Amino acid sequence: MAIRLWPQDYERKDHITKAEKGILRYAARNFQNGHMVVGIDPVGLSGERVKLGMYISPSEGLVTFSIYSGMINAMLVSSHIAYVQMVEGKIYERLLDSKLLIVRNGEKKALKFPYKHIVMFPDEVVGKTTVSKDDLQQLRNYATFDSFRPITSDGKEKRIEDLKIFAGIRKAYDKTFKSLSELECRAIFERLAPEYTVVLNETINVCVAEKKTLVTEADLRITGKELDDFDRLSVVQRSNSSTRKAMTKSHDRAVYALLADSKWKLDSEKSSSDTGLTEETDIALETGSTEDSGEENSTDNQ
């Protein structure tokens, strides 16, 4: 199926930001299938300066993203990583509530498909960021530039698979995963973006498969043997994630506030408001501009 964009009439939506429209235009030009969605708030953390979205790739899995306005603050690199881990954990637990999306190994549950969360910095420009290479290495697999371009990019990516959108998975999943069905895609929408779909009937009789083939978080954890392949600083930073403690709700909000460089103010009265990546393609990436007038037809393939 062709890439589907949500909302379909995004060019006419005033509440959809310039960065969000830019992502949808980029997807319309370059992505071959799946769902690109903006304007969601599955865990109540979307705000004025941070917007959430997701990309469902039938053949690769799910990635959710936070679009962060502003530049990367080198002093907040650890906070960015902690924020990603916190949001990723909350969304993963939310997805585990759907019987359509999980497998079991005894008492343990895991998603059928790979999933991760990232932070996207559309205001940063490849090759012009002031953040050091060491700091960018720490953010690898946790953050990207605009339109999923790797945070360690040198600007030479030519194809979608070069973006390595699904690199660095941290959460457990079924290693026999092949693809997401249309029903499973709908179930993801129901859990993360119900405003875009008819809510699935939760009383449906779903049999949860028993699997002994889970890729666990321990399997995904960096052990130190990878030092020959990865920068030492990156390995140490990512290894630290295995010893992190569960955050309290108040700490979650504190981390989120830090990301806004102390300019974002909490308001307790506010309501929390594929690509065929596995298929080699010679289609070159079209970067375009986030200020495009939007002539691309985003609804033809709906």
Structural commentary:
This protein is of the alpha/beta class. It is 25% helix and 16% strand. The protein has 7 helices and 11 strands. The protein has helices at 18-30, 77-96, 133-139, 182-192, 217-220, 232-240, 249-259; strands at 4-6, 35-40, 50-57, 61-68, 102-105, 108-111, 115-121, 143-145, 173-174, 209-210, 214-215. The strands form 3 sheets. It has a 6-stranded mixed beta sheet with strand order 1-2-3-4-7-8, sandwiched between helices. The chain has a 3-stranded mixed beta sheet with strand order 6-5-10, with helices on one face. A two-stranded antiparallel ribbon has the order 9-11. The longest helix has 20 residues, at 77-96. The model is unreliable at 232-251, 260-281 and 290-302 (pLDDT under 50).
| Cα separation of the termini | 9 Å
Counted beta strands = 11
The residue-averaged pLDDT reads 80
Helix content: 10-25%
Shape type: globular
Counting helices, strands and paired strands, the structural category is alpha/beta
Question: Rg, please?
Answer: 19 Å
* Largest beta-sheet details: 6 strands, mixed
SSE succession: EHEEEHEEEHEEHEEHHH
Q: What order do the helices and strands come in, and which of them pair?
A:
Elements (H helix, E strand, L loop, with lengths): L3 E3 L11 H13 L4 E6 L9 E8 L3 E8 L8 H20 L5 E4 L2 E4 L3 E7 L11 H7 L3 E3 L27 E2 L7 H11 L16 E2 L3 E2 L1 H4 L11 H9 L8 H11 L43
Parallel strand pairs: 1-2, 4-7, 5-10, 7-8
Antiparallel strand pairs: 2-3, 3-4, 5-6, 9-11
Task: Summarize this structure briefly.
The protein is α/β, with parallel strands linked by helices and 302 residues long. The protein has helices at residues 18-30, 77-96, 133-139, 182-192, 217-220, 232-240, 249-259, and strands at residues 4-6, 35-40, 50-57, 61-68, 102-105, 108-111, 115-121, 143-145, 173-174, 209-210, 214-215.
